[in-house]
Design the sequence.
């Protein structure tokens, strides 16, 4: 949670964006993020992001569900209140498979979605800074962070040369804050004073 | 990217009209931002009226008991359970389209998946009503949940298929809602960022959870969708399998059949696709989305209808064959006498089922018929009538003549309140669908944009050029495509 300074540029075509990402990274600029209206396959690799661990989390939640079902049913039907149903075994594993499977899926799905929301910091009444409203419509918006060493003018020219349109500088809060999108209230009134 | 070149030109485009990303946003968000049409209001009000009638019918049942329905000692499951199985079946197409076709990399699913998933959720909501209100003392419904209680603790019987149903349908509903909503998040953000009105900014800001479209978020989102699809695929097969266990694990002749799970799943996909066709043909017309839900989509779904219809047909014939081959007199009575004999009390229902489900979908072997909207719409309704009768035949014709003739039932026909309940679920379904189509994007915006440059009309033409390139350059570009 800090207010930082960014150089922002929009792209219209994916191939141009991919080349620009490569150039920005080789030039050594701090590529903050690219905001796109749709998933672009391969962009995460081009940006050098690491793989997500959501599938691993899903697996762990899944086996938690299986275990919960198995333990819960065994406890109730074998230990707590065993019922003699036609002399059949109390530990009737085949008959429990449906519920064990359902709980595996349920735990895994709910857990993964909650993890996803947590990792992406998403929830109702969460507000974030949006660099461009067109990043959810038709433009891929590249955001480069300015550090002490960055020469803003040079970076702007550089970004324009890679094919970006509408290149400009923005001060932005990097974290989220509580608020609704109908009120344009920012957590810090004068961002320039708290500039990192 | 380089990979875009490899989409075959033989396949027709999935997005007609030479669209840009912005035009897609405009086309799909327009119905949300415009005032609802008279047609929308008419449909919506009719649905609400049906819903109110349904609520009234159910209220009578709650006050006076299940005796309001014409169920009796022999026919204990009638319209209510028929409707339950029917609605659950309809709910299967959405997950099939969104999950199984995602795993099979079927590009055409993107045009129809959002509406189909919504349909799934609403259909499962309708389905859930029937077993709940059928309980009679509905205020005891929480007894199905396993929680430590002051009655022992008395636990539900985890060995019972009816309890499996609770878990299966509950899980299915939850997972479908999560899958659908995760897909909606980016699209709601699109609507939010275009919004001019204050309430719209508030509402879509609230529902889009602060989605920004960051690459890292998209990466997680893609993985989440993929894994949820992987989970939903066995789930959707398990749900109707478990519903069929309600019957298959009993020892009632006509229900006690090992063929039930695959047969029910095929039937569910069959009726689900029919309902998707019914809804989408109306939706594309009312919201003018002909360029996104193309004849190609309708054609492909009709192919699935003829396939699953034929699977169901084979299942019907196998049942008859096994009844004869087993030489079991009870099986023979259940299938050959109580069902297939036209001159028994419910023989008529069997032949409606056969003609609607097996014979009539065969028109879809013809490409001309598959691409004819009037025929498709008519057939989609016929198929769902047929599938309703399938469940009715399975349930009622197996139990109305018990083992001893003195227990043979008086002819079971529903009371007005049973019919009212059924109509009420139609009201619930369409009320939800109308609200959904007004307030949410009915087509997955981000996904359509994702396939635009490979399957869009304007981009397809350029793909022939790739073949003129030297193969070495081609291979090199493939290998080094980011």
Sequence:
């Amino acid at each position: 949670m800090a207010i930082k300074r960014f150089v922002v540029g929009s792209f219209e075509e994916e191939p141009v964006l991919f080349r620009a990402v490569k150039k920005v990274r080789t030039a050594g600029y701090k590529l903050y993020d690219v905001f796109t209206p749709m998933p672009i396959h391969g962009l995460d690799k081009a940006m050098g992001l690491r793989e997500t661990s959501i599938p691993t989390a899903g697996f762990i939640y899944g086996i938690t569900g299986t275990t919960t079902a198995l333990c819960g049913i065994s406890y109730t039907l074998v230990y707590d209140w065993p019922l003699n149903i036609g002399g059949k075994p109390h530990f009737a594993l085949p008959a429990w498979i449906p519920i064990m499977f359902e709980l595996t899926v349920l735990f895994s799905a709910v857990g993964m979605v909650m993890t996803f929301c947590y990792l992406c910091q998403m929830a109702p009444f969460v507000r974030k800074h949006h660099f461009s409203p067109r990043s959810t419509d038709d433009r891929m918006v590249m955001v480069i962070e300015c550090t002490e060493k960055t020469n803003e003018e040079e970076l702007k020219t550089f970004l324009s040369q890679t094919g970006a349109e509408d290149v400009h500088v923005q001060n932005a809060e990097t974290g989220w804050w509580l608020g609704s999108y109908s009120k344009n209230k920012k957590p810090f009134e004068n961002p320039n004073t708290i500039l990192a | 990217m380089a990979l875009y070149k490899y989409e075959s030109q033989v396949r027709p485009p999935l997005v007609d009209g030479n669209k840009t990303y912005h035009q897609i946003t405009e086309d799909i968000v327009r119905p949300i931002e415009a005032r609802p049409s008279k047609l929308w209001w008419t449909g919506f009000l009719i649905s609400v009226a049906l819903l109110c009638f349904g609520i009234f019918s159910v209220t009578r049942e709650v006050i006076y008991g299940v005796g309001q329905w014409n169920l009796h000692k022999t026919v204990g499951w009638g319209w209510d359970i028929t409707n339950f199985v029917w609605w659950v079946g309809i709910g299967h197409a959405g997950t099939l389209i969104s999950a199984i076709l995602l795993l099979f990399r079927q590009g055409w699913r993107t045009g129809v998946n959002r509406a189909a998933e919504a349909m799934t959720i609403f259909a499962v909501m309708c389905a859930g009503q029937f077993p709940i209100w059928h309980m009679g003392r509905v205020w005891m419904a929480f007894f199905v949940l396993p929680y430590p209680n002051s009655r022992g603790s008395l636990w539900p019987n985890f060995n019972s298929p009816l309890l499996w149903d609770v878990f299966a349908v509950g899980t299915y509903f939850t997972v479908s809602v999560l899958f659908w909503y995760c897909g909606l998040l980016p699209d709601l953000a699109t609507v939010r960022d275009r919004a001019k009105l204050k309430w719209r900014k508030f509402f879509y800001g609230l529902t889009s959870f602060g989605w920004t479209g960051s690459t890292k978020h998209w990466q997680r989102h893609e993985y989440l969708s993929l894994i949820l699809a992987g989970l939903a695929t066995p789930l959707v097969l398990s749900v109707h399998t478990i519903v069929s266990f309600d019957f298959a694990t009993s020892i009632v002749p006509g229900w006690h059949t090992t063929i039930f799970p695959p047969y029910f799943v095929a039937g569910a996909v069959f009726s689900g696709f029919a309902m998707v066709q019914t809804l989408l043909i109306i939706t594309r017309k009312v919201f003018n989305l002909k360029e996104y839900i193309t004849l190609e989509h309708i054609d492909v779904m009709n192919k699935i209808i003829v396939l699953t219809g034929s699977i169901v047909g084979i299942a019907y014939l196998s049942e008859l064959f096994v009844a004869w081959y087993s030489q079991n007199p009870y099986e023979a009575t259940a299938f050959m006498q109580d069902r297939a004999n036209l001159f028994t009390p419910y023989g008529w229902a069997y032949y409606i089922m056969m003609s609607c489900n097996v014979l009539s979908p065969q028109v879809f072997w013809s490409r001309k018929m598959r691409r004819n909207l009037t025929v498709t719409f008519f057939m989609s309704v016929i198929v769902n009538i047929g599938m309703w009768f399938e469940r009715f035949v399975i349930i009622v014709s197996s139990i109305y003549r018990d083992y001893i003739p003195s227990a043979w039932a008086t002819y079971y026909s529903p009371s007005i309140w049973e019919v009212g309940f059924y109509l009420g679920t139609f009201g619930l379904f369409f009320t939800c669908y109308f609200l959904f189509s007004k307030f949410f994007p009915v087509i997955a915006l981000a996904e359509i944009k994702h396939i635009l440059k490979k399957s869009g009309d304007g981009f397809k033409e350029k793909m022939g050029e790739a073949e003129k390139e030297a193969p070495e350059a081609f291979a090199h570009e493939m290998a080094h495509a980011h």
